[in-house]
Amino acid sequence: MHWHIYLVVAVGMVFVVILKLAAGLWAGAGLSLLLLAFMALAAWNGREEERKARAAEAEAGKPDVPQE
Fold first, then answer.
1. Rounded Cα distance, 67 and 39, in Å
2. What angle in degrees, to the nearest 10, is found between the helix axes of 3-23 and 26-61?
3. What whole-number distance in Å separates Cα of residue 50 and Cα of residue 4?
4. pTM across the whole model
5. What is the pLDDT of residues 3-58, one digit of tens each?
6. How many CA atoms lie within 13 A of 4 on its CB side?
7. Are 27 and 19 in contact (CB under 8 A)?
């Protein structure tokens, strides 16, 4: 997954929210804030899935070592 794209969009949305709040566009800022939250969650979930996949690949590559 390309979770980096979601992260870049989320960071960009922070600036959009700040600009809309400064302009007094409260409804637009609220909608942008919801989109920001969605993008941040998508980035977080993508990162976690990638981390779990890498851990599973690393675990699969290890030889079975007898436990003492």
1. 43
2. 160
3. 11
4. 0.68
5. 788 888 889 989 999 999 999 999 999 999 998 999 889 888 988 988 898 888 87
6. 1
7. no
